[in-house]
Amino acid sequence: MGGEVWGKLICRRLIIDSDILFPEELAYEDSYWMPLLCIYAEKIYLIEEKLYHYYVNPCSTSFASAGFDHMDYLTVQLKKWAEYTRRGLMEKYYAELEYNFLSEMVGFAGKMVLMHGEQSYSYFLLDSELVKEYVADWKTNKYTGNFSPPYRLLLDGMYASLDRDSYAQIVDQAKILFLEKYNESLVY
């Protein structure tokens, strides 16, 4: 279904009744909003017909190589976790919400590796500390078997307290694994 809001037609009543709002003045708001929408939606219909032409803007927030918008991504994940807790969703959906959190956080680490390489070390350290604070052991979540090899490598690195040199080695390995994953997706 994808996590982007732009590809959805959403009943206004669902948004109002569920009090689903975008976080104010932060980038990456879709990441906050879509999981809540999916939790409260009683029916979801997928349509295969292409009804929207999406333009990939290389200067967009998602593709920006520098700037504080990257910190917004981490902030949104923390706000999302707090909102799940506030709404009492953790009791019923803990494994799923934890998996979503891990997916977002390791996805951020992967983006930093691919865009910034070894220069992303400080982002990786912050990302790692947040992951370890909220998730004691990523391997205990029943959904983490879905992670591909580059993400499994990054998650292992997050729990290993890597120094800069060890992180550089992980970056090199992750880039190779991402390239292999990309090449596999091109095979028909």
How would you sum up this structure, described in words?
It is built from 7 helices and no strands. With 188 residues, the chain is mostly helical. The two termini are 22 Å apart.
Q: Which key features would you list for this structure?
A:
mainly alpha; globular
What's the arrangement of secondary structure elements?
Layout: H1 12-17, H2 29-40, H3 69-86, H4 90-116, H5 121-134, H6 149-158, H7 164-186
Q: Which oligomeric form is depicted? A: single chain
Largest sheet: none
- Ranges where pLDDT stays below 50 over 5 or more residues in a row are none
Please compute the radius of gyration using only Cα atoms.
17 Å
In terms of DSSP E residues, the strand content is: under 5%
The total strand number stands at 0
Q: What value does the average pLDDT take? A: 88
Structural class: mainly alpha
Report the end-to-end length measured between terminal Cα atoms. 22 Å
Q: Helices and strands, in N-to-C order?
A: HHHHHHH
How many helical stretches?
Answer: 7
Helix fraction by DSSP (H/I, runs of at least 4): 55-70%
Assign an overall shape: globular
